[in-house]
Amino acid sequence: MNRQISPIAVSTALGLGGRGIFPYTLWPAYRRLRRTVRETGTTVFTKSATRHPRQGNFIPWNPLTWKYIRRLPGGGLLNAYGLTNPGAEASARAIRASLAAGFRVVPNLYPEFAKGPDRAIQETLEAVRIYQRALGRDFWALELNFSCPNSAEEIRQNVAQALACSKALRRQCPDLYLIAKISLCHPYEFAQELERLGVNAIHGVNSIPYDLVYPQGPSSPLADAGGGGVSGGPAFGLAYRYNAELRKKVKLFLIMGGGVTKLEDVKRYMDAGADAVSLCTLALRNPKEAAGIVATFAKKA
């Protein structure tokens, strides 16, 4: 079993199970991307699950909530998704099916610190046991999402909880490959402390709060939901600068992502010291370009 992260990874864009999101799966270019990802053994990070089912702002079967995901110019997306998901048990079943279909999938889990740190850590450990039972030896790595700008927690205030959660998880699962997905809003010292705790990899960065990307306005069309997070092209400049500086601060495996829209962006991240580069919004906005990038780096591997 391959227990390495591929040079190019696909993050969130293949859904909770890691093999596609409906209705994107009706799109031929997206299906070709799925096939390329599977055939090249590309690492897939799933959309975030929580221990128990969670209903956020976006509800797939309710058209009135579709407004919480919007396209932006320059290949961008704005979302206030709110982490809608059916929970860790459903996630584990979906991932097991994806593994059986030939995908290389790493679960992503969101600790719900808004419930209180003790309960969030307890539920995180419960979710890990669910993945262990469902996936067996195929559960070798876990990505922890510490960086959702659309949640009730303030990112700048969740550092202590995230460190406590990582410490508890490392204590319970000393051999599990832990990946922390962080935010541009996190101080670099957070990543350094995660490294000291024994986290194996950092994934920077998640979607960026709207007001940071557009400080001069206009106001976010999702202002009633906290403004939302920006991904894709408009986020690249900020994400690149943060990641390039982060590389100077940590020695552990660093997955750089945020704003990639073309091969040149990937090369800039690699030149900045990325050990791997993640594709997210590109896979939804331009899956043909994403498939080309995946194939290009698979040939080099």
Automatic annotation (TrEMBL):
Gene3D superfamilies reported in the protein's UniProt record: Aldolase class I
Gene Ontology cellular component list: cytoplasm
Highest taxon above the source species: Bacteria
Cofactor: FMN
GO biological process: 'de novo' pyrimidine nucleobase biosynthetic process; 'de novo' UMP biosynthetic process
SUPFAM superfamilies reported in the protein's UniProt record: FMN-linked oxidoreductases
Keyword Flavoprotein among record annotations: yes
Keyword Oxidoreductase attributed: yes
InterPro entries recorded: Aldolase_TIM, DHO_dehydrogenase, Dihydroorotate_DH_1_2, Dihydroorotate_DH_cat
All copies of domain Dihydroorotate dehydrogenase catalytic, residue ranges: 43-288
Keywords: Flavoprotein, FMN, NAD, Oxidoreductase, Pyrimidine biosynthesis
Any GO MF annotation of the entry: dihydroorotate dehydrogenase activity
Pfam families reported in the protein's UniProt record: DHO_dh (PF01180)
Pathway stated in the Swiss-Prot or TrEMBL entry: Pyrimidine metabolism; UMP biosynthesis via de novo pathway
Bilayer-crossing regions: none
Quaternary structure note: Heterotetramer of 2 PyrK and 2 PyrD type B subunits.
Protein name from the UniProt record: Dihydroorotate dehydrogenase catalytic domain-containing protein
Organism: Desulfobacca acetoxidans
Organismal lineage: Bacteria, Pseudomonadati, Thermodesulfobacteriota, Desulfobaccia, Desulfobaccales
